[in-house]
Structures are given as C-alpha cells and as structure tokens.
Amino acid sequence: MFRKILIANRGEIALRVIRTCKEMGIKTVAVYSTADAESLHVKFADEAVCIGPPPSTDSYLKMSNIIAAAEITNADAIHPGYGFLSENAKFSKLCEEHEIKFIGATAEMINQMGDKASAKATMIAADVPCIPGSEGILDSYEEAEKIAAEMGFPVMLKATAGGGGKGMRAVWKKENLKDAWDSARMESKAAFGNDGMYMEKLIEEPRHIEIQVIGDSFGKACHLSERDCSIQRRHQKLTEETPSPFMTDELRDAMGVAAVKAAEYIKYEGAGTVEFLVDKHRNFYFMEMNTRIQVEHPITEEVINYDLIREQILVAAGIPISGRNYTPKLHSIECRINAEDPYNDFRPSPGKVTSFHAPGGHGVRLDTHVYSGYMIPPNYDSMIAKLIVTAQTREEAINKMKRALDEFIVEGVKTTVPFHRQLMDHPDYIAGNYTTKFMEDFEMESQ
User: Which residues are catalytic?
Assistant: First the structure.
C-alpha cells in the first residue's frame, strides 16, 4: 500500500481524497496555488506545497511543479481528482517515468478513450452500441454534407477534442450545415487548438445516463449502476440522481453489460464512467468514457455504501476488485452548488463568504471546502459544494433535498441554492419527466 499520496487538485475533491487517505492510514500532500492558501484541503493535509500563482496554467496544470512537489515530499502516488490533469495522458506517462503511481488510467487508456473519434472506433470494435455517424474525423465539409444526407437530419457536429459543449452544433436542416460547420471548427480551434470534427445522428428527447465502472490490473471490471445526469445547462451538469427515474431493470442490465464490456475491452484500471445517450424509446448509445472519478460519484457511494476513492487507491495498489455488479436499493440526489447568480444568467459570483451554515440531519451529506470567511477565487470552476441526500424512495429524497436546501445558508456571494430549490418543486422534475433539453424552457421565478 502507498505510504504517501499527493493530491494534484484543489477544493472539495482534494479534501474528499484526503479524508479517505487518512482513514486508510496514508499520509497526504496537498498542492495549492497562492489563491488557495486558505482552502481547507491545504489545512487538513499532512503536508502542503505551493506550486504557483493563481492561473491554472502556472499551478494546477504545471506538470513539472507537481512532479517536483511529489519528489521533495517523497510521495509514492498521485491522485489527480477530476478536471485539471486527471485525463492527461502526458501527465500519466510522466508519473510513470518518475516511478510515481498515477491513481488513474494509463496514458494508453487515456489516449484510447480521451479522443472522441478514437473512443467511438474502439467501442464499435468492442461491440458497444454507438450513435450512427462518421467513422472518425471528417476530412472535409463535402464529406460532412454527404454523411448528413445519408443519415438524414437532424445531425450533431462535434469537436473531436471537445468538452463542456464547445465545438458542438445541432443542425436540423441542410441549409444550416455550412454555417454550423464553420462556427464549430472555429470555436474548437480556439478552445482546444484542434478543429477536427465528427458527426453523429442527433438523438431526440435524449437523457444522459452514465454507468459507474471499476476495473483492476487483472483485466476484470464491474459496474456500480447508473446515474442520471440529464439536468444540464450548456452541457454542464447541474444535478444528478440514482437510480434514474427513466430506468428499467432490463435497461440497467443491458447498459451495465455494455459498460463492463467497454471497460474490459481496453483492460481499464481504476474508477471511470461509460456515458450513454438514451432516447425516448430506451435505445442507448455510447457517448464517451471518462477515465477518472466523477464530480457526482457521492450519490453512487451513498446508495450502495461504497467508498469509490478507497477502491481507486486499492486498485492502483494492485488489489483485485470483488467483481460484483450493484443495483441501488436507496435513492440519492446531488445538487451542485455553484458561486453563480441564477437570477442573472448564472453569472459567476466570486468573493468572500461572510456567513456559512451547512445543512445536516439523517441522509444529508455536504462535500465542500468552503467556510465562513473563505474567499472564493475567480480563477477556477465556480462549484463550491455538493449537497447530497439519500432516502428510501425518490419522493422522500426530493423532500429531504428541499429541507436541506432551505437550511443551507451562504452569504456574501450569490449561489445556485435558489435554483435547486425551485427545481425540486418543478412538476416535470418531480414526475421524473426531463431530458437534456430541460433547462431550455426553465425560467427562474422572481426572488
């Protein structure tokens, strides 16, 4: 087992990893930018190393600084959390070269699954259902036009290096294809330095449902059931739940088999998710694989009583998984609490937290690095907390979340707590009747 793990991340996920490491008797090293000197992950780690100024490129994305921090503290493993370098093949390889265990996927796995076009080709080879579309990157606009005509509209253009909704365009009619092609390529080039595009059939009334998987170094994988992540804004998830209100036993079995097949085909090691789009007829299609821990992993932990971070560490240390597939017996919902103003187009709201009261009670969990007096920096993602509730039924979970949101007090900055509170009262959400398009028609009620 590892003696000391450096957490190459910040905020709530860094604190989350530190907690499990402490329970396992493993020493921890926090890294931080100067903007994060007062963050709780810095205070609670056994050691802390400043790795640079506030910009991510000079700190949390600075590979040489992180490797140096691991070496000077004699850390024998690095946990990357999510975001930043968690799915960076070069960093995974760099850790290997410095004989530091990267608690995540190998460079080969990341390269296989990180590029959307190559991931799709890999999944077709693994006999996992994929959305009809181009075979790899489109060579030209003329090829895009030809494939769109063959599939029929609507279609979706996607940047092969995309993420966060950048470089994506839904095209409903032939006459709009050229403008969409040009603007998507331009946006992708600016965001990722890569204007490669591919095309898929647009799935109508889609739900975004992901399957949590764990794989070990012996080629064995299992799934830990699903999470419904369909409530999104600009392709960014806002809330998640498990089990999905759209799920059936037959669909769960089929998606679980496909996800395990995907993981075992690439001999996947660690925690990851296989993400699917599910249409209104419950046909499901592979979308992408995230080769890391997910933001929304706590809801899976809560419904099956399973520490995913602990399992990541055990697998990285060469311990085999149990091989058991899980079905949730409880219901859990997570609300991502962002420092944003939901009454003002979700504009970021960094600043000093002047008052902070965390909700509590049975079945309530709050993952956060924020406290009264904490200064939320403007340099990073605006998520400041994850509120998770767990109950016997979905109805009870929704009522518990309403109560917890009513208790949650954050003053000094705007947060998305009011949005989530209104969402919990929305009749379509209560009925489980939502798709990834839900937020297009959602309007905040006045304060």
Answer: 292
